Amino acid sequence: MTGHVGASAVTPATVDGQNAPAIRTRGLTKSYGERRGVFDLDLEVRQGEIFGFLGPNGAGKTVTIRLLLDLIRPQRGRAEVFGLDSRRDAVAIHRGVGYLPGELALEPRLTGRQILTYLGNLRGGVEWSFVEQLAGRLELNLEQRFGEYSRGNKQKVGLVQAFMHRPRLLVLDEPTSGLDPLHQETVTELVREARDEAGSTVFFSSHILSEVQSLCERVGFIREGRLAQLGPVDELPGMNSYTVEAELGGTLPPETISSIEGVSNVKVDGSSVSCTVRGDMAPLIQALAPYEPHRLVSREPSLSELFLHLYGVTGREEEDGATGEPTPAVGE
Ligand SMILES: Nc1ncnc2c1ncn2[C@@H]1O[C@H](COP(=O)(O)OP(=O)(O)O)[C@@H](O)[C@H]1O
Ligand SMILES: [Mg+2]
Asked: Which residues in the chain show pLDDT less than 50?
């Protein structure tokens, strides 16, 4: 019963939803089996923010997005977009949303230009010069047929169609997947510009911590269909942690570094040592220096390592949790 909401029923004010959150879900549930799907999701995304929706593969990011946009129906709960009901007002919501699906299936025989022209005409109000500009910045050749595009170029077509009408809300399902680092950076620039210049709200799903860390004000972590954490990026536990690996000239007694504040997960294997550091790295480096490190690598934890951190689950006996600070899991 979405047909009764014609364009005339939706004034900009109702789409604005005045002070309504850009996205709000309450008890949103779609089960595909135990831990598969989305369960009791309570989420709020503020107007004008870039919200990172993080989770490992299979966590429920795409299911959430499809529920928001009424592409699938929940078993329980509801979702609102700018105060409009995702099911009843789906047509109105779609007018104001730019959506990049996780997988894009478009007519393979049409060129990028033909597809974008068609989609632009359907939407109306799209400036072709902006389409050209987006394609140019992503270095997308519009004259190629969709079926002949590489995965990355298909993704770029999806991105252009999501941004081209300067939507009030961008819903981007893993927007940088399949792109090389240069174009990944272009995507984050486009997201920032959409927010800063058009005041758009951005819902940015990802399984890569680093891109969300620098781009988003707040993030939600989803795991096995449940929201595990929600909050400002810098306040999330484990966010400023690094995994450090070193090759030493000598053998290091583990207690040399496991007693340092912020150091945990110490593993020593002959001349190799690895650990997790939170906060200041100087004490660790000073402690390692006498052991003549000839290789030192520091990297951010992967999402699954971070989840281990968040849940205080080590899964390994040798890890005695030097910091010993169990992290509360919100919403579990
Ligand atoms: N149509 C479907 N039928 C059965 N299982 C599904 C369906 N869609 C999603 N799932 C399952 O729901 C879980 C979450 O999927 P999804 O939201 O696609 O994860 P991701 O976070 O990687 O986007 C996965 O276990 C997936 O297998
Ligand atoms: Mg997905």
From this structure: 1-15, 313-332
